[in-house]
Amino acid sequence: MYGLVNRAVEQLVVSLKGEPGWRGVCAHAGVSSDGFVATEIYDDKLTFDLVNAVSVRMGLPVETVLEAFGEYWITYTAAEGYESIMDSGGNNLREFLGNLNSMHGRVEATFAHLSIPQFRVEDISPNEYHLFYRSTRDGLAPMVIGLVKGLGKRFDQAIEVRHNHAKAIVSEEDIFLVRHVCD
Amino acid sequence: MSAIDASGTNDHAFSVMPPSLSGQAFTRAFPFYLQLDRQLRVVSMGPSLLKAYPAAQTGLALSDLFRVTRPLTLSTIESWHAHAGELILLRGLGSTPLNLRGCAEVSDDGNLLLLVTPVVNSLAEQRQLGLDPNDFPKHDTTSDSLLLAQTTHMATMDAKRMSERLSARTAQMNSILELSDNGAVYFGADATLRYTNTALRQILEMGEAEAFDLDIGAFDARLGTLLRPSDQSDSQPLSRLMAPTQDGVAGIRIELVKPRVAVIHVKSARTQEGGWVFYFRDITHEDAVDRMKSEFLAAAAHELRTPMVSVLGFIELLIARKFSDERRADMLGIIHRQSNLMVKMINELLDLARIESERGLELQVAAHPLNVILDNTVKGLMRRDTDSQVIMGDIPHALVMVDLEKIQKAVGNVLSNAFKYSPGGGDVTLAARLDAAEDAEFAVIEITDRGIGMTPSQLTRAFERFYRVDASGKVPGTGLGLSIAKELTEMHRGRIELSSEAGEGTTARFWLPLAPH
């Protein structure tokens, strides 16, 4: 996993529990708390170990941690200097999700060694669509829910997200139902 | 004009027309283009250029919008034609931060086409121009380069932050290791010495710079020269620790004779990067205490066995044989005395054990008048079986900081010894004075007898447990009284001294701290 992801986990924990909390998480995970380099590739296991450690130390299910992390990722990446890239993604959630592959394509073109997920959208109705998510990694569906919720907040749009179909042998994609809630 | 066909071959036989683009496709491919007429006025421009530079309107002269910095002296369309295909640099005029780079091409109608793109060095500059990645054509890597630059900058900052954290952690570890009384040395995977703490250098009497001259083999050999000769068969102790079969955590015990006599426990661990860390713990004191405990147990068992054998022997005689009433009474008297001796010895052993375990924590220290302490002690020792008396000398009025019960026991033990070791009689003198030492004030109690005294060698052993000056057994006692007196006095931050001469007598001096004025 990209070091930026581990850094975001660190920042999330520090924002909630401070530096001592982060050192406790690292000690639990058996990971050095010295930090991560954004452009370095780290073993995926390290990231999952950190997420598990956060789960144990904060007494939250892993799924909840991943969802919180997904939501945090949106504000974190914008704050870390990628605001303009986020801005170029679109003016609303539907548009942004539709352009997500193109945005990821730019990242993949620059960092060819990264394994980046793919997304596509199929509309059901004007306020309802399916988001298809394909990744070489397993178990990150809750994070996608958090990401979509975080984007909903970014665009100030009230939404509901449901994980409809988990990735299985018969389907290589997770499917999420996104519904815009009218006030 | 020759061209390269779709197969990539350069074939003069088939001239292929260069591709042309429709307006929309051209705009998508060159969103920052600028088209100028023969008077160098703006005819049209790309949408992204207009977004970044709203002042750029059709009909305006190029010179109203940009300063051409390369090539220079381009004032006519003809001069532009002469530089077609060359690199051009344009700087926006006024407050616009827009700079463009690209080339000028001449179109079929003789107009000038500037195929340019913004010069942007950071995502912040891109934002300042009001541009986002979608304003750049997909084949233009400007935006992606900015992403890379941003991420590289972030990675640099990460590395800097990690470096700072590591420096801070190194400082912490150094502080911890420097505070330790135990020595630590680290050798890298290349066997060179990388770190020693002060404690290690003190144990081995080695300078810090000098230590860096040693690799693991030289260090081990140097250590070997410091070992007790009996240990030098194992002249390279660290090599033994590094052996695959050795349990580094359990460690090894070595005895140094240089730079000072010391017993050291050495543990080792292999680090992740293949280095070795050795940890030296000075166990000289622990070792001595262990040895003393063993000796004490052996001595206690021996001392208890003597009266026990006597008791057992007389009981066996009384069971097996008949004796006159007088003889029988004698034997029972011996059994009674020896049993009393054993009880006393056990009680004193228990007292010693308690004193050691309490280590002064249970002391009820308060200011007590010196004369009261000494009067009480003397009264407690009034003896009817001897004419010898305690002659009280001068006792100054002073308060001492002591636990009354415990200090009376200490003084009582010494007074008792004074009588016991004066078999020919003779008075015992008890006096006191005030003195100062090491910026503190003390009451010095002196007990002097005219007894058998001690030789210098006997004097050096006087405080040993079970040591008896009179080995004949004629003087009753356990050999623990002085040990107890010493322990009790030292618990009060005081001390006890002995001076003696064989055949002349002994003087004991207690130094007890005075109460604050």
Task: Give the tags.
heterodimer, A: 183 residues, alpha+beta, 4-stranded antiparallel beta sheet, 4 strands, B: 6-stranded antiparallel beta sheet, 5-stranded antiparallel beta sheet, disordered N terminus
Structure explained in plain terms:
The complex is a heterodimer of chains A (183) and B (517). Helix content of chain A is 55%, strand content 16%. Chain A has five helices and four strands; from the N terminus they run ααααββαββ. Chain A has helices at 3-29, 44-58, 62-87, 93-110, 141-154, and strands spanning 118-125, 128-134, 159-165, 174-180. Chain B is α+β, with helices and mostly antiparallel strands and 517 residues long. Chain B is built from 16 helices and 18 strands. Chain B has helices spanning 23-29, 47-52, 62-65, 77-82, 123-128, 142-179, 198-204, 208-211, 216-225, 237-242, 284-320, 325-358, 370-380, 404-420, 456-460, 481-491, and strands spanning 34-36, 42-45, 66-70, 87-92, 99-106, 112-118, 183-187, 193-196, 252-256, 262-270, 276-282, 366-369, 390-392, 399-402, 428-437, 440-448, 495-501, 505-513. A six-stranded antiparallel β-sheet of chain B has the order 2-1-6-5-4-3. In chain B, a hairpin with a 5-residue loop joins strand 9 (252-256) and strand 10. The radius of gyration of chain B is 50 Å and the shape is rod-shaped. The relative contact order of chain B is 0.05. Chain A binds chain B through residues 3-4, 7, 33-40, 80-85, 87-88, 106-107, 109-111, and chain B through 123, 126-127, 132-134, 143-145, 147-148, 150-155, 158-159, 161-162, 165-166, 169.
